[in-house]
Structures are given as C-alpha cells and as structure tokens.
Write a structure and sequence with these properties.
The structure holds 2 protein chains of 2 kinds. Chain A is of the alpha/beta class. Helix content of chain A is 43%, strand content 18%. Chain A is elongated and about 75 Å long. Chain B is an alpha+beta fold. In chain B, strand 4 and strand 5 form a beta hairpin. Chain B starts with a helix and ends in a 25-residue tail after the last helix. Classes of the chains: A alpha/beta, B alpha+beta.
Chain lengths: 181, 662
C-alpha cells in the first residue's frame, strides 16, 4: 500500500468511527432506558444474599422480599440523581409507610453511611453490592433504579432513573395499593 | 395573535435559511458575486425573523398567556418575573428557539464582520451556517412548535421545575448555548476551507476569534451550572460526572484543543488537517450534547423533559452535520498542504501534546458517558459512574498542567529543555513553598491533595512568571518593565490570565475535594454547633408562604472567636404546583472557604431539626478561577491582531491556485 493510499485511508478513519457510533445511538434510541422492560418482570427476584454496610449489620437477601409489597431501590453515594430522589424516598417511607430495601451499588461503605447520615435513611435494610454482581442479576442499567416487589417476592415493576413526584403518585403508590389487596 | 406572528416568523426564518444556504454556496462555486452577496442579506433577514419569533414567545411567557401550551407547561402566574423570562428557555421548545436565535446571531455576525475574509470562503461559511439553521428550524417546526395553542385555555400553568427557578440557572443555558452554537462557526469555517481546498495562516486567524467567543461563553456556562449545583442541590457537590454535565465538558475539552491548534495554524502554518478535524469534532460534540440532553437515551438528573421521537430528529441532524463534515474531510483533507516542520521540543510540540491530552480527555469522557449505552446494545449491563472518572482524571490532568505552564516558555520551532527549565526555577520554588504551606496547614494526608496543590501552584505561578519574564521584571528598571508590559500583545496577556485562572480553579477543586469537613446533627432552637472554627447557633425556624412556594426558613447566627460574623438563612421549599421540594443552603463565604449549612427534616423523635454543616476550603476559587479564565478569553479576543475587520498582515504568500475538485 502506498503512503498516499495509507494517508487517504487514515482520513477516512474519523468518518468510520463516527458511523459506528451513530449506529449505536440509533440502536440506543430504540431502547428507551426508562421503559426497558426488566427480564424479571413477573418472575421471582433473583436469589442473593448481600452483607450489610458494616460488620455485623444485617444485610439484604431475597428472603427479605417475601410477605408484603415492598420496594427495592438501587443507589450509590456517588450518584447525583440518587440525591435528588432521596427526599422522595424519605417521604415514601415516613408518610406512606412503604417498606424500602436498598442495594448499595459499587460504593464504599463509609461513603454510603455518610450519604445516609446526611440525607436520612429511608431503608429497612441495606445490602452492600460492592462488585455489582447482584445488580447485574437484577439487570440494573444505571443508578438509581427502583423495583416494586409483590407479596410472593416477584418483581412487578421497574423504574429506571430518579423517581419524580408524579412517578410515585401515578405509578408506584397505586401499584402498591393494588398489589397489597 | 402575537404567538401566530412568532410562528409565522419562524417559518419565514426557515425559508430565509434555505436561501442563505443555497445562494452563497452556488454563488461561490460559480464565482457569482451577486449570489454570494445574497447570502449575507439572507443571514441578516434570518436573524430579524428569529428575533421576532423569540420576542413573541417571550411576550407569551411574560404576560402568562395560558392559551399557549408551552406557557401552560412551564409557567405559573405566581412565578417571579425573572423566571417567567428565564422560563422561555427553561424547556425543550424554548431552548431550541434560543439555539437557532444564537445560530442566526452568529451567522449575521459572520456576515457583518470579517470584511477581510475572501468572498468565496465567506459565502461558503455563511452557506454552511444556513444549512445548520435549516436543519434546526425544520426540527422545531415539525416536532417542537413552541407556539402551539391549547383550547380551552387553563386558568393557570403547571409551573417550571422548581430546581430551575434560580438566578444562577436562569442565565446558565444562554451562555452554554452561546458556546455550543459558537463552535458552529468554527465548523462552518472548516467545511468552507475543505470545499475551497485551502487552509493558510490567515484561516487560523479568522477562525480564532469565533472559537474564543464560543470557548469563553462555554466556560462561563459550565461554571454557572456547576455553581448552581453547588448551592442548589444541597450538599455542596460541584461536579457529578452526570451525562449532561459531561455533554458540556466534551465540547469544552475539544474546543480548548481547537483554540490551541488554531494558533499553530496561524503562527506556523502547521497542524492544518488536525485543526480542521478538531473544528468538525468540537461542533459535533456540541450537537451530541444537545442529542444526549434532548433524547433521554441516558438517564440523568438534568433530563427534565425527554422524548425519544425528538431524539431521532436530533440524531438525524447530528448524523447529517457530523457525517457530512467528516465525509468531506475524508474526501478533501488530502488536498491541504503539509506546513512548517518543527522539533518535538518546541512550542508547537508542547501544543501538540496539549492537543493530544485534551483530545484523549474528551474521548475518555465520551466513552465514560456512553459506555452504558454502548454495552447495552451488546446486551451487557454496566454502569460507569464517578469512580471511573475520578480514577482516570489525575492521569490526564497532571501531565496537561505540567505542559500548560511549560509551553508558553518555549520558543517556536526548537527549544532546549534545560534552558526553559532554568527560566522556570522561580516557578518551581514558589510551587515548593505552596506545597510546604499546604503541608503545614493541612498535614501530609491525603497525599493527592499535596499533588493537586503543586499542580495548581505550578499552573498559576507559571502563568504569572511567564509574563514577568517577558517584561524582564527585576532585571531591568521597573519603569521599563511597565512599558514592556504595555507593549505586550493582549493575546499574550490573555494566555497568561487564562492559564492562571486554570491554576486558581484547580486549587479550588483540590481544596474542597480533599479537605472538606462535615457534620450532621439534630439542632433545637438555641443549640450550638462548631465546625472549622465557626460557632453556629440555630436562632429560629419560620414557616412562610412566598410567591409560588412555601418555605421553612431556619436562621443561623455564625460566630467566630465569639464575634458575630453573619446571620444566615437556610430554607426547605415546597412547590405545591410542581409537587417538589428543594433546599436552599445557607452559605457564608470568606473567598478562602465556604461555610455551608443545610436545614434538613424536622426530627420526628424529640423535636429539633436535622442540620448538616460543611466547611469547603478554597471552593470559591473554582468559580473565581473560571471567571479569570473567561477574562483571559476576552483579553485574547480584544487583541487587535485578531480583531475582525482589521486588515490582516500576510505572513506568507498564499498560493493562488485552487486544488482541483474530485
């Protein structure tokens, strides 16, 4: 290959890279992340057992998800949207008496503790998912995510991204009421 | 009636944009002066039409015309006037209108200024600007009409997202857009040059002022956004590596690289192909930013209103602009002549390294931001968050800052490193003293903090000393130094000031990241807490109803050494229409550090409130430094050598012959 051809091919490189990227974007658009159906919808939550944030503290396992309708919230102290939705979780737990469990995703336990000390702790129990294994089993796309689990421990709904007041009022709370009947 | 006029003006603007793109491009190809001239007129007319349209939407917001859907969705009659105005661009449709308004502004500016630009190049630049305008105007008119009416008109509106009702954020989008859109001019110049098949030093000089305007505005916009996040989101974080923040950081990094490589084109007639590519990429990253924010492909704290349908449209625009630009690049860039040669150890060499590091940084941010999206397409699930960025940032920033201070000391073509370093011994000494000072004040841990302070001092003092060296400070009588300082081109001042600003900003980032002190406690009325030498007393907590929200307002007395230094109020606001709660932190700043207080929930058990106290050392420097950087940009911009309209001195004869088109 002559130097000139090589040079011309090199100039084509940016376009090639961009076209590949553009293809992914197009693909990405067909999958609205906030509507990504979880593979787990209406299936039992994956079996797992996570340790607590500190030694001796109770963690979270799939056995905890049986018996009543509850939420599982995936959060991390480094995640900004988590901070935005946190006051809402606090209100849900306190004013509506909703049981919320947490999977603390790829986080330092100290940082997570500090986060909860600052923002309040709405969680009944917290499992520390340091390497993100359990989150993968749940099919977590990014933090934060929230799952609605029914009495039989089945995943019934998945919300991607921070919960907003209208999500809670129009979707989460009606669903909890319905499932609790 | 007025909204209809606005809508009509927008359609008119689309037609004018078509004229602005077709006429001058054809005219330039046929060497027809009259056709090329039409492009200029169309650019002015397009600006006038979009101004009418923008004013019409603003009028609807200001008078709260609830028969307009956009006003209903984003406004409320009780909203303060500032946010009624800011609400115009605080939503999808309005922000796009602002986008095309800025685009038309830049188009008209190119048409009006730059009389020394060759007519064919100017016509092509205007034509490309027109094409971008056509794309975005079509997008607005087809998918996002801001003037859609609603019948029957509701009595009141849904209110603007309360997080956005903030003076800092009111003017954040205009600056950000001025930056994003400003890079379109660099893009148009690059595409124009590719069509012409010629880039010469004069091209570097023409493209630089526009890049500087865009860069300064973007710096300002990012700084304002980060400042807003700092005081509004309620825990004093100032950067989250959130996809939307990254979307603004990527064009900034690429734009910074472009700014520097354009200097090499101008001064040394080298790096031409690379600079053209950077110009295309910088604007593409700006478009990508728009795509990410508007499409909702990535979940983000900022994605207030997202819509996949619109995402498709923005993606289409992105692919047309970037794909078209890069296709042209692939076909035509070989026509650009390779310019001056230089040794790796030279100012050009330093600028190449700077470009390399900045581009890699932009790529790293791009990968980190899009990774979830890319891997999702493969069926993997992964989340890359702040840990990835925090891990990788030092590896790129440390060498970047090292070179940043060194570069201006190096001569063009060939430098000798020992000579450069020997001129920098004062900088090294001052850096050492700064580190010792930090060691004495804050201790040896964390070590990264000391490294960070060394970087900040190296950058800051390096910039100051570079000017001192140029004016021969202390080596000649002070009077002569002063007259030398007066004679120094403003561009040189701009470089030094911007680099010093970077140093100041780094010091701020390091200070608050590593030396933050925090305390959370339950405080009852009259309780005292102490943090970083301050004594904080909770004085009273009141419930108040203000404008469109209710607030719980806590007053704190701040004492230092027994003396009252300030009384602060921290609020928890509840917006009943939007059903959202926000926090307003109380901040006491000394310019060296911030005392930051947040009023939390009422303690359910024994009364009192949860109060969070933070001490952020050096944090104001982040924004002071950013402002200094913007000042540096403005100084460079006012250099008469760059001033548009001043007859340019030709440094080299420009080859007259055009490369044959393929």
């Amino acid at each position: 290959m002559s130097a000139v051809t090589r040079h011309r091919l090199l100039l084509l490189l940016p376009l090639a890279v961009f076209l590949i990227l553009g293809g992914y974007f197009a693909l990405g658009l067909t999958r609205d992340p906030s509507k990504l159906p979880s593979m787990l919808i209406d299936k039992p939550a994956p079996s797992f057992a996570l340790p607590g944030l500190s030694e001796g503290e109770k963690g979270l396992s799939n056995a905890d998800l049986l018996g009543k309708v509850q939420l599982v919230n995936v959060f991390a102290s480094w995640c900004a949207p988590c901070r935005v939705e946190h006051p809402l979780l606090m209100r849900l737990a306190k004013e509506q008496g909703v049981t919320i469990h947490a999977i603390n995703y790829k986080d330092k336990p100290d940082a997570a503790q500090a986060f909860l000390a600052q923002m309040g702790n709405p969680y009944t129990s917290i499992g520390a998912d340091k390497d993100g294994r359990v989150a993968i089993d749940f099919g977590v796309y990014g933090v934060p995510e929230t799952y609605v689990i029914d009495k039989q421990g089945r995943v019934r709904y998945r919300h991607v991204g921070p919960l907003m007041p209208f999500d809670v009022e129009e979707t989460i709370l009606p669903m909890i009421r319905e499932l609790s009947k | 009636m007025i909204p209809e006029i606005g809508h009509y003006a927008l359609v008119l603007a689309l037609l004018l944009a078509v004229a602005q793109s077709v006429m001058p491009l054809v005219g330039a190809a046929r060497r027809d002066v009259a056709w090329m001239e039409t492009g200029r007129m169309a650019a002015f007319a397009q600006l006038a039409a979009i101004t009418v349209s923008f004013a019409a939407l603003m009028q609807a917001h200001v008078v709260s015309d609830f028969s307009v859907l956009n006003v209903v969705n984003n406004s409320h009659s009780l909203k303060p006037m500032l946010y009624k105005v800011a609400g115009v661009w605080g939503n999808h449709e309005g922000s796009l209108l602002l986008w095309v308004f800025m685009l038309a502004l830049f188009g008209a500016a190119v048409a009006g200024f730059g009389r020394n630009i060759p007519p064919t190049l100017k016509a092509r630049v205007l034509g490309v600007q027109g094409l971008i305008g056509v794309g975005f105007l079509l997008f607005i008119l087809v998918t996002s009409n801001p003037f859609a009416r609603v019948y029957p008109a509701p009595i009141d509106g849904n209110d603007l997202n309360p997080l956005l009702q903030d003076p800092g954020l009111a003017f954040h989008p205009p600056f950000l857009y001025l930056g994003y859109v400003g890079f379109s001019v660099a893009f148009s110049f690059a595409v124009g040059a590719l069509i012409e098949g010629r880039v010469d030093p004069a091209w570097g000089r023409w493209v630089r002022p526009w890049t500087l305007v865009a860069w300064s505005s973007l710096t300002m916009g990012i700084a304002m956004g980060s400042w807003w996040a700092y005081y509004e989101l309620g825990w004093g974080g100032w950067w989250f590596w959130d996809p939307v923040e990254n979307a603004s950081l990527m064009p900034w990094l690429a734009g910074t690289a472009l700014l520097h490589s354009a200097i090499v084109v101008e001064k040394r007639d080298a790096l031409k192909t690379w600079t053209i590519l950077l110009a295309i990429l910088t604007f593409s990253l700006s478009l990508l930013g728009t795509f990410l924010v508007r499409s909702g492909v990535l979940t983000s704290v900022h994605a207030f209103a997202v819509d996949p349908q619109r995402g498709v449209a923005v993606l289409g625009l992105l692919i047309l602009a970037t794909g078209g630009g890069l296709l042209l690049f692939a076909l035509r860039a070989h026509a650009l002549k390779i310019g001056g040669l230089f040794s790796p150890l030279s100012r050009e060499g330093a600028l190449v390294l700077n470009n390399l590091l900045l581009s890699v940084s932009a790529a790293v941010v791009l990968i980190g931001t899009l990774m979830p999206l890319l891997l999702d397409a493969f069926g993997h699930k992964i989340s890359v968050g702040a840990p990835y960025f925090n891990f990788i940032t030092p590896f790129l920033t440390i060498p970047l800052v090292l070179v940043m201070a060194l570069g201006p000391f190096m001569p063009w073509k060939r430098a000798d490193l020992s000579g450069v370093l020997s001129r920098m011994w004062v900088v090294a000494l001052l850096t050492f003293i700064s580190v010792m000072l930090a060691l004495w004040l804050a201790g040896v841990k964390p070590v990264m903090a000391l490294v960070g302070i060394a970087m900040a001092a190296w950058a800051g003092f390096g910039a100051v000393w570079e000017v001192a060296e140029r004016v021969k400070l202390f080596r000649v009588p002070l009077g002569e130094s002063l007259s030398r300082a007066k004679g120094l081109p403003l561009g040189a001042w701009g470089t030094a000031v911007a680099h010093a600003g970077m140093g100041i900003a780094i010091a701020g980032m390091v200070g608050t990241t590593f030396w933050l002190a925090e305390d959370v406690r339950v405080m009852k009325l009259g309780d005292k807490a102490s943090i970083a030498g301050y004594e904080v007393t909770l004085d009273k907590v009141e419930d108040l109803a203000v404008a469109n929200y209710r607030t719980e307002m806590g007053s704190f007395m701040i004492r230092r050494d027994g003396k009252l230094v300030s009384t602060l109020t921290a609020e928890r606001r509840w917006y009943p229409v939007a059903k959202m709660q926000t926090t307003e932190a109380a901040i006491h700043t000394t310019f060296y550090s911030d005392l930051y207080i947040v009023l939390g929930e009422e303690n359910p058990g024994g009364g009192g409130w949860v109060v969070r106290l933070y001490h952020h050392p050096l944090v104001p420097w982040i924004w002071i430094g950013s402002l200094v950087m913007v000042l540096g940009g403005c100084l460079s911009l006012s250099d008469r050598r760059l001033r548009v309209g001043v007859p340019a001195r030709r440094t080299a004869p420009v080859p007259a012959a055009l490369q044959p088109a393929e």
